Amino acid sequence: MDAGTALTGAPTGAPRATTPGWPFAFRQFRFWLTDYRRTWRGSIYSSLLNPLLFLSAMGLGLGSMIDKHGTARLGGVSYLVFLAPGLLAATAMQTGVGEATYPVFGSVKWNKTYQAASATPLRPADIFHGHLLFVTMRLAMNCGMFLAVAAALGAVSSPMVLLALPVAVLTGLAFVAPIEAWAVTRTTDTSFAMIFRFGLIPLFLFSGIFFPITQLPVWLRPVAYATPLWHGVALCRALALGTATPGASLLHVVYLLAVAAAGVFAGQRTYRRRLYV
Fold first, then answer.
1. Which of 46, 91, 200, 244 is the most exposed place for a label (fewest CB within 10 A)?
2. Contacts from 74-77 at CB under 8 Å and sequence distance 24+?
3. How far, in Å, CA of 204 to CA of 160, rounded?
4. What is the pTM of this model?
């Protein structure tokens, strides 16, 4: 059995579908799922340890000192309860960026799995959509485990926090789709370090995760408001605290959907240019 048959269930050289469809994307998703079965144990450990360590150190440790000085600026809740939904959105961002960079680059440059798939009936758009389906599953898994750990530590104060799970997944997709669209065009992986150092770290620190965005300088707040992570953090926190309003929630969701849709549109074009040679 050759690489094309293993990836898609169809022999290499088979005629391509005349119309794209999600069944073909699901075949690519099955490839990623099969590959993930070999490594899932390691990712499960990190998915549980990261929220446990972060919430214990920052929420319980640092939070105990912050709570002594009053919680009025935090909306009257403990620092642990304030912090947890922000970290939930940040977890989605970190998971999404990690899945959208090296796995995509490796599939083009190192493992050549994208080239193998493109030699089958799968179109570049199907390959792109299939990876998006897999990353969506990973986002749901990681965010779900984060919520479970947060609940165990007493960081959940409202049953509406369950609605924060799909919001966190959408936040992750708002990063995944554009970055995948860009990552597939790369010929070296050196630029990925720039994304992590000058993209993720500033967003992680200045998107309202650890302190209210109103504590930033006035001139810097519009920059934070324009980032997908702030919208995810704000909506996850509002849902977790039970303070969400329909108007603000709709604004956050529309923004995140627009960014994700723009990334999907761009990814369909960049995947086609890279894989149709």
1. 46
2. 74/212, 75/241, 75/243, 77/157, 77/241
3. 24
4. 0.87
